[in-house]
Amino acid sequence: MKKQSDNLISLNDHLDSQYGQRGTVEREDFEEGFEAFKIGAMLQELRKQQGMTQEQLAVRCGTTKNYISRIENDASDIRLTTLMRIVRQGFGKQLRMTVDF
Predict the structure, then answer these.
(1) What angle do CA 67, 65, 95 make, to 5 degrees?
(2) How far is CA 100 from CA 45, 49, 91, in A?
(3) Predicted model pTM
(4) What are 30-33's contacts with CB under 8 Å, separation 24+?
(5) How far apart are CA 68 and CA 62, in angstroms?
(6) What architecture does CATH give domain 11-91?
(7) Looking at residue 1, what is its pLDDT?
(8) How far is CA 14 from the centre of its chain?
(9) Is residue 46 within 8 Å of 91, Cβ to Cβ?
(10) N or C, where is the chain less crowded by C-beta within 10 Å?
(11) What's the pLDDT tens digit per position in 40-99?
(12) If you ran DSSP here, which 8-state letter would residue 87 be given?
């Protein structure tokens, strides 16, 4: 682990020490969970920016407040089709994805 100062290490070095190198099962599980967390946080931020409650978003999307809450709080996996519906019907936006190589 490469130290950058007496008390600081890089985020990647920290993740390597806590979850293993990229490509290991533990690290991939962490990365996958973090992506799910980011999706929930992004939806919550967009909802708040648009001044909507979870209930209002749920009604627009044809789902429940409980399900929106579970997504925002990283307690539920979300299907791609559901994410697309929430973005399209709930926010009036289009979902765009990229793949990093």
Answers:
(1) 65
(2) 24, 28, 26
(3) 0.72
(4) 33/74
(5) 11
(6) Orthogonal Bundle (1.10)
(7) 52
(8) 20
(9) yes
(10) C
(11) 999 999 999 999 999 999 999 999 999 999 999 876 778 899 999 999 999 999 999 888
(12) I
What average pLDDT score do residues 23-48 get?
Answer: 89
pLDDT (0 to 100) of residue 66: 95
Which token pair is 63? Answer: 């789902």
Cβ burial of 59 (10 Å; 0-12, 13-18, 19+) is middle
The tokens 């789902």 sit on which residue? Answer: 63
The residue assigned the tokens 């994410």 is: 83
Tell me how far apart the alpha carbons of residues 86 and 95 are, in angstroms, rounded to a whole number.
9
**DSSP 8-state code for residue 7:** S
Q: Which amino acid is at 80?
A: L
